[in-house]
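Moderator note: this is an archived Q&A kept for reference. The question asked for a predicted structure of one protein chain; the sequence and the answer are reproduced below.
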Amino acid sequence: MWIIVLQRITVQFILDVLYFPLWWYSAGAWTALQFCVQLFLDQQTKLAPILWLKNLFVPMYGQYDWQGRIVSVFVRFANVCIRSLIVVMWACFYLVGFIVYLLVPICLVGLLFRSLFA
C-alpha cells in the first residue's frame, strides 16, 4: 500500500516539475501580466492626470477673475505634467518587473548549468 502511495507521489512530483515551465510561461505569465496591468490602472486612478487635464481651464477655488484663471491653468498644467511623468515611470517599473518575471527561470537555469559544468 505504501509503495503505491509513494509511486503516485513521485510520479505527481515529476509531472509537476515538468509542467512548471509550461505553466510559468503560459498561465503564470498571463496572471503576472494581469497583475501588472491592474497595478498600473490603480496608479492611474490614484494620480488621475486625465481628470486634471479635463479640468485644466476650470478656475480653482472659485477665482473667476483673469489672474485666478491664469494661475489655475499653470498650476493644473504643472500637475498634469508631473502626474503623467509619475504614471509613465510606474508603467516602466511594472514593465521591467514583468520582463524580470519572464527572465528569472532562464537565468536560473543558465546559472545552474554554469555552476555544474564550470
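Archived answer notes: The helical segments are 2-25, 27-47, 49-54, 66-117.
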